[in-house]
User: Fold this.
Amino acid sequence: MKQIAVLLIIFAMGCDSESVTTASSDSSPYDEYETYSIKRTLDTARELQKSGTEEAIVQLKAWAKANPDDFRTIVMCRMLFKGKESPLRRPPLGGAVFLGGTTYDDWPLEPIAIFEGVPILITQGYAVGGEAEPVEVYLSYCIQEGTWVPERYEDKTNKQIKASLERFIAATEWKQELSDSEKQFLMSQAR
Assistant:
């Protein structure tokens, strides 16, 4: 990767439950930023949980190996692993661009927040200078330093997700009022 300092517009985990076993390595997570779907993200996490820890880790490793920048794997790590004794470190993706004037201290699971069992993308991108840590390295860290979460993610309808997003926007202590585009960014995830 060339040394650059650009605002990367990150991803969208355009994966569905079928892609758990047939993930394509052709597309970058950055290509699909505008299509981030909480529903598809939940479905992917649920499918990984159903497959069992060992099989899920094999799948996560395959995604990470196929695409060193696979943001989907980062999000799955944040959803499916927790620290054994202390919180897992954040993935080194660059300088996060948060919503509503918030900071890293506000989002322990950055780049997502889990609210009412819903994984909400709370970064609008990252400023990257140099190379980010490969996803395989972060996944290995999570496997070694973390444990698989026992809580199961539930299936949610788009209507339930939209209602959760509305409550999230209202309940979060934003440092500054959300702009219309930030609200739209959050609500667009209800697909």
